[in-house]
Amino acid sequence: MEMRERPQIIYVLVIRGPRVVLAEYTALAGNFQQATVQILQKLEHTTEWKSYIYGEYAFHYIVDDASGLWFVCMAERTMGRRIPFAFLGAVQEECLKRFRLEEVQSAIAYGMQHEFRPALQHLMERYNAPDADRISAMMEKVQHINDNLMESIDKILERQEKIELLVSRTETLAQSSGSFVREAGRLRQVLW
Asked: How many CA atoms lie within 13 A of 180 on its CB side?
């Protein structure tokens, strides 16, 4: 797999029940379908949003009981859950808006592929875009600002220490010069 700057959603599919693939999309070449078929056998039918970790990948899925559709995506494990589930929610919304329940129930395998694949592609590109994860981007900016502030505070404290040292040496020098003047005056009196 090519190196990318941040984790990506790799593969998405819409299935009726746990077996009939109605539409799918991936921008990459690979054996995603074979891996997904193995994973689908392990996924449980649930109304909760679930994730299944498989090596360096995570399979996230949402089951819509009303339509009988499962929305599944494969993403890099390091992506976490927030963006993949936001993506799956958008896929679910788009699918249910585009297809009537009768169409979903009567569709043959890959029967929605031609019509729905461009929508899957568009949504995947949108959620894989660098600015898709605004929260992480904002957290990075906040961390950067925090680091800069801490560095500035450290510099201010360092300067403060140097100023205090300078003041202390100045006081010592003032005392020493006072002693010097007194001793020089005494020495002048002794010598004259």
From this structure: 6
